[in-house]
Amino acid sequence: MKKEHDNHENCVIHTEDLTKVYEGVVPVKAVDDVHLHIEKGEFTALVGPSGSGKTTLLNLIGGLDNPTSGKVWIHNQDITQLSKNELIDFRLKNIGFVFQAYNLIPVLTAKENVEFVMLLQKVPAEVRNQRVHQLLEEVGLLDQMNKKPSKLSGGQQQRVAVARALASKPQFVLADEPTANLDSKTAAKLLDIMAKLNRDEGVTFIFSTHDQRVIDQARRVITLVDGAIASDEKKEVLEAV
Ligand code: ADP
Ligand code: MG
Protein backbone atom coordinates (compact mmCIF):
# COMPACT_ATOMS: atom_id res chain seq x y z
CA MET A 1 0.00 0.00 0.00
CA LYS A 2 1.31 3.45 -0.86
CA LYS A 3 1.99 5.45 2.25
CA GLU A 4 1.60 9.18 2.62
CA HIS A 5 5.34 9.62 2.53
CA ASP A 6 8.32 7.60 1.39
CA ASN A 7 8.17 5.49 4.49
CA HIS A 8 9.48 1.96 4.66
CA GLU A 9 10.20 -0.73 7.22
CA ASN A 10 13.30 0.87 8.70
CA CYS A 11 12.04 4.42 8.97
CA VAL A 12 11.43 5.34 12.61
CA ILE A 13 11.08 9.12 12.38
CA HIS A 14 10.01 11.21 9.45
CA THR A 15 9.15 14.88 9.59
CA GLU A 16 7.86 17.14 6.85
CA ASP A 17 7.75 20.94 6.85
CA LEU A 18 8.03 20.79 10.62
CA THR A 19 7.76 24.26 12.12
CA LYS A 20 7.27 25.58 15.63
CA VAL A 21 6.65 29.24 16.29
CA TYR A 22 6.50 30.50 19.86
CA GLU A 23 4.09 33.41 19.82
CA GLY A 24 4.92 36.48 21.84
CA VAL A 25 5.70 40.13 21.42
CA VAL A 26 8.41 38.96 19.06
CA PRO A 27 7.41 35.52 17.69
CA VAL A 28 10.29 33.01 17.66
CA LYS A 29 10.56 30.39 14.94
CA ALA A 30 12.25 27.77 17.12
CA VAL A 31 12.00 25.02 14.47
CA ASP A 32 11.95 26.12 10.86
CA ASP A 33 10.68 23.81 8.13
CA VAL A 34 12.59 20.72 9.19
CA HIS A 35 12.56 17.63 6.99
CA LEU A 36 14.17 14.81 8.86
CA HIS A 37 14.38 11.11 8.22
CA ILE A 38 15.79 8.76 10.85
CA GLU A 39 16.23 5.05 10.30
CA LYS A 40 16.20 2.17 12.73
CA GLY A 41 19.58 1.65 14.36
CA GLU A 42 20.90 5.17 13.86
CA PHE A 43 23.12 6.90 16.43
CA THR A 44 22.56 10.54 15.65
CA ALA A 45 23.75 13.73 17.33
CA LEU A 46 21.76 16.93 17.06
CA VAL A 47 24.11 19.86 17.51
CA GLY A 48 23.98 23.63 17.26
CA PRO A 49 24.40 26.65 19.46
CA SER A 50 22.20 27.34 22.44
CA GLY A 51 18.80 28.52 21.24
CA SER A 52 19.14 26.81 17.84
CA GLY A 53 16.04 24.68 18.46
CA LYS A 54 17.46 21.32 19.57
CA THR A 55 15.15 20.89 22.55
CA THR A 56 12.12 22.10 20.63
CA LEU A 57 12.82 19.68 17.77
CA LEU A 58 13.31 16.75 20.15
CA ASN A 59 10.09 17.68 21.96
CA LEU A 60 8.18 17.78 18.67
CA ILE A 61 9.56 14.41 17.59
CA GLY A 62 8.77 12.98 21.01
CA GLY A 63 5.21 14.31 21.03
CA LEU A 64 5.88 16.49 24.09
CA ASP A 65 5.02 19.63 22.15
CA ASN A 66 2.73 20.38 19.19
CA PRO A 67 4.07 21.82 15.96
CA THR A 68 2.68 25.05 14.55
CA SER A 69 2.66 23.33 11.18
CA GLY A 70 4.04 20.22 9.55
CA LYS A 71 3.99 16.52 10.30
CA VAL A 72 5.79 13.99 12.45
CA TRP A 73 5.52 10.32 11.60
CA ILE A 74 6.76 7.68 13.97
CA HIS A 75 6.78 4.58 11.79
CA ASN A 76 3.39 4.75 10.11
CA GLN A 77 1.74 6.93 12.71
CA ASP A 78 1.30 10.64 12.13
CA ILE A 79 1.52 11.69 15.76
CA THR A 80 0.21 15.19 15.03
CA GLN A 81 -3.17 13.53 14.41
CA LEU A 82 -3.39 11.84 17.81
CA SER A 83 -5.59 13.10 20.63
CA LYS A 84 -3.92 14.07 23.88
CA ASN A 85 -4.65 10.71 25.51
CA GLU A 86 -3.67 8.71 22.46
CA LEU A 87 -0.40 10.63 22.39
CA ILE A 88 0.34 9.84 26.04
CA ASP A 89 -0.23 6.18 25.35
CA PHE A 90 1.80 6.29 22.13
CA ARG A 91 4.74 7.96 23.88
CA LEU A 92 4.73 5.43 26.67
CA LYS A 93 4.89 2.52 24.24
CA ASN A 94 7.15 3.91 21.57
CA ILE A 95 9.54 6.55 22.82
CA GLY A 96 12.19 6.57 25.50
CA PHE A 97 13.31 9.89 26.97
CA VAL A 98 16.52 10.92 28.68
CA PHE A 99 16.65 14.50 29.93
CA GLN A 100 19.48 16.78 30.91
CA ALA A 101 18.39 16.83 34.56
CA TYR A 102 17.96 13.03 34.90
CA ASN A 103 14.29 13.42 35.98
CA LEU A 104 14.23 10.33 38.15
CA ILE A 105 11.51 9.97 40.74
CA PRO A 106 13.29 10.82 44.02
CA VAL A 107 11.27 8.58 46.33
CA LEU A 108 11.82 5.48 44.19
CA THR A 109 14.96 3.33 44.07
CA ALA A 110 16.95 2.87 40.86
CA LYS A 111 15.17 -0.45 40.31
CA GLU A 112 11.74 1.08 40.91
CA ASN A 113 12.48 3.99 38.59
CA VAL A 114 13.31 1.58 35.77
CA GLU A 115 10.30 -0.57 36.62
CA PHE A 116 7.84 2.31 36.69
CA VAL A 117 6.92 2.41 33.01
CA MET A 118 6.42 -1.35 32.96
CA LEU A 119 4.09 -1.07 35.95
CA LEU A 120 2.05 1.49 34.01
CA GLN A 121 1.97 -0.93 31.10
CA LYS A 122 0.91 -3.78 33.40
CA VAL A 123 3.85 -5.97 32.44
CA PRO A 124 3.71 -9.16 34.56
CA ALA A 125 5.98 -9.14 37.62
CA GLU A 126 8.29 -11.89 36.43
CA VAL A 127 8.94 -10.31 33.03
CA ARG A 128 9.34 -6.94 34.71
CA ASN A 129 11.89 -8.19 37.17
CA GLN A 130 13.93 -9.93 34.54
CA ARG A 131 13.97 -6.89 32.31
CA VAL A 132 14.89 -4.48 35.11
CA HIS A 133 17.81 -6.70 36.07
CA GLN A 134 18.98 -7.01 32.49
CA LEU A 135 18.79 -3.24 31.93
CA LEU A 136 20.56 -2.33 35.15
CA GLU A 137 23.24 -4.84 34.30
CA GLU A 138 23.68 -3.31 30.84
CA VAL A 139 24.25 0.13 32.35
CA GLY A 140 26.53 -1.35 35.04
CA LEU A 141 24.32 -0.59 38.03
CA LEU A 142 23.03 -3.92 39.23
CA ASP A 143 24.80 -3.44 42.57
CA GLN A 144 23.18 -0.01 43.06
CA MET A 145 19.61 -0.97 42.26
CA ASN A 146 18.18 -0.46 45.74
CA LYS A 147 19.55 3.05 46.11
CA LYS A 148 17.47 6.18 45.70
CA PRO A 149 18.68 8.80 43.19
CA SER A 150 20.05 11.07 45.95
CA LYS A 151 22.50 8.29 46.89
CA LEU A 152 23.80 7.97 43.34
CA SER A 153 26.29 10.14 41.46
CA GLY A 154 25.15 12.23 38.48
CA GLY A 155 26.62 9.71 36.07
CA GLN A 156 24.90 6.83 37.83
CA GLN A 157 21.58 8.69 37.84
CA GLN A 158 21.85 9.29 34.13
CA ARG A 159 22.61 5.61 33.56
CA VAL A 160 19.42 4.78 35.49
CA ALA A 161 17.62 7.25 33.21
CA VAL A 162 18.98 5.42 30.13
CA ALA A 163 17.84 2.07 31.58
CA ARG A 164 14.44 3.57 32.34
CA ALA A 165 14.15 4.96 28.81
CA LEU A 166 14.70 1.45 27.44
CA ALA A 167 12.29 -0.32 29.79
CA SER A 168 9.33 -0.25 27.43
CA LYS A 169 11.46 -1.39 24.47
CA PRO A 170 10.82 1.87 22.65
CA GLN A 171 11.27 2.39 18.91
CA PHE A 172 13.91 4.97 19.74
CA VAL A 173 15.41 7.02 22.57
CA LEU A 174 15.52 10.81 22.57
CA ALA A 175 18.19 12.27 24.83
CA ASP A 176 18.30 16.04 25.30
CA GLU A 177 21.84 17.00 26.33
CA PRO A 178 22.17 13.85 28.43
CA THR A 179 25.76 14.68 29.39
CA ALA A 180 25.28 18.38 30.13
CA ASN A 181 25.56 17.92 33.89
CA LEU A 182 28.36 15.36 33.80
CA ASP A 183 32.12 15.82 33.85
CA SER A 184 33.77 14.80 30.61
CA LYS A 185 35.02 11.42 31.84
CA THR A 186 31.58 10.45 33.16
CA ALA A 187 30.01 11.81 29.98
CA ALA A 188 32.29 9.61 27.89
CA LYS A 189 31.28 6.57 29.93
CA LEU A 190 27.58 7.31 29.47
CA LEU A 191 28.14 7.62 25.74
CA ASP A 192 30.03 4.33 25.68
CA ILE A 193 27.00 2.66 27.26
CA MET A 194 24.63 4.25 24.76
CA ALA A 195 26.92 3.31 21.86
CA LYS A 196 27.10 -0.27 23.12
CA LEU A 197 23.30 -0.49 23.40
CA ASN A 198 23.12 0.87 19.87
CA ARG A 199 25.69 -1.58 18.51
CA ASP A 200 24.65 -4.71 20.39
CA GLU A 201 20.89 -4.25 20.78
CA GLY A 202 20.19 -2.01 17.79
CA VAL A 203 18.69 0.74 19.97
CA THR A 204 18.10 3.90 17.93
CA PHE A 205 19.37 7.03 19.69
CA ILE A 206 18.98 10.70 18.84
CA PHE A 207 20.79 12.96 21.28
CA SER A 208 21.44 16.66 21.42
CA THR A 209 24.77 17.83 22.70
CA HIS A 210 27.41 20.53 22.92
CA ASP A 211 30.10 18.12 23.96
CA GLN A 212 32.72 17.42 21.27
CA ARG A 213 33.54 14.00 22.72
CA VAL A 214 29.90 13.08 22.48
CA ILE A 215 29.67 14.42 18.94
CA ASP A 216 32.72 12.33 18.01
CA GLN A 217 30.86 9.15 18.95
CA ALA A 218 27.88 9.89 16.70
CA ARG A 219 27.57 8.23 13.33
CA ARG A 220 25.43 11.03 11.98
CA VAL A 221 25.62 14.68 12.96
CA ILE A 222 22.77 17.06 12.23
CA THR A 223 23.49 20.74 12.83
CA LEU A 224 20.72 23.20 13.55
CA VAL A 225 21.07 26.93 13.03
CA ASP A 226 18.12 29.17 13.90
CA GLY A 227 15.79 26.17 13.92
CA ALA A 228 16.75 24.94 10.45
CA ILE A 229 18.99 22.05 9.43
CA ALA A 230 22.27 23.63 8.32
CA SER A 231 24.12 20.37 7.71
CA ASP A 232 23.53 16.66 7.95
CA GLU A 233 26.60 14.45 7.80
CA LYS A 234 26.90 10.69 7.97
CA LYS A 235 30.26 9.34 9.05
CA GLU A 236 31.89 6.17 7.90
CA VAL A 237 31.67 3.57 10.61
CA LEU A 238 35.17 2.73 11.77
CA GLU A 239 35.32 -0.92 12.69
CA ALA A 240 37.29 -1.68 15.81
CA VAL A 241 40.28 -3.90 15.15
P1 ADP B 1 18.25 24.72 22.20
O1 ADP B 1 17.73 23.48 22.85
O2 ADP B 1 19.03 24.45 20.94
O3 ADP B 1 19.03 25.57 23.14
P2 ADP B 1 15.49 25.61 22.23
O4 ADP B 1 14.69 24.64 21.45
O5 ADP B 1 15.43 25.51 23.70
O6 ADP B 1 17.01 25.59 21.71
O7 ADP B 1 15.03 27.09 21.85
C1 ADP B 1 14.89 27.53 20.51
C2 ADP B 1 14.33 28.95 20.51
O8 ADP B 1 12.99 28.94 20.98
C3 ADP B 1 15.08 29.91 21.40
O9 ADP B 1 15.08 31.17 20.79
C4 ADP B 1 14.25 29.92 22.67
O10 ADP B 1 14.41 31.13 23.36
C5 ADP B 1 12.86 29.75 22.11
N1 ADP B 1 11.97 29.05 23.06
C6 ADP B 1 12.14 27.80 23.54
N2 ADP B 1 11.12 27.43 24.34
C7 ADP B 1 10.28 28.48 24.36
C8 ADP B 1 9.01 28.75 25.01
N3 ADP B 1 8.42 27.81 25.78
N4 ADP B 1 8.45 29.94 24.80
C9 ADP B 1 9.02 30.86 24.02
N5 ADP B 1 10.18 30.70 23.37
C10 ADP B 1 10.81 29.53 23.54
MG1 MG C 1 18.08 22.66 24.72
Protein model, in words:
The protein is an alpha/beta fold and 241 residues long. The chain has a single domain (4-234), classed as Rossmann fold (3-Layer(aba) Sandwich). The chain has 7 helices and 10 strands. It has helices at 54-61, 84-94, 110-120, 125-138, 154-166, 184-201, 212-217, and strands spanning 11-22, 28-39, 43-47, 69-74, 77-78, 95-98, 172-176, 205-208, 220-225, 228-234. It has a 6-stranded mixed β-sheet with strand order 6-7-8-3-9-10, with helices on both faces. A 4-stranded antiparallel β-sheet has the order 2-1-4-5, covered by helices on one side. The radius of gyration is 18 Å and the shape is globular. The chain binds adenosine-5'-diphosphate and magnesium ion. The site of magnesium ion has 4 residues, from α1.
Distance between the termini: 43 Å
Computed Rg: 18 Å
Highest-level CATH class: Alpha Beta
- CATH structural architecture: 3-Layer(aba) Sandwich
The figure for the number of domains is 1
Tell me the fraction of residues in β-strands, as a range.
Answer: 25-35%
Question: In a nutshell, what does this entry contain?
Answer:
The protein has 241 residues and is α/β, with parallel strands linked by helices. The protein has helices at residues 54-61, 84-94, 110-120, 125-138, 154-166, 184-201, 212-217, and strands at 11-22, 28-39, 43-47, 69-74, 77-78, 95-98, 172-176, 205-208, 220-225, 228-234.
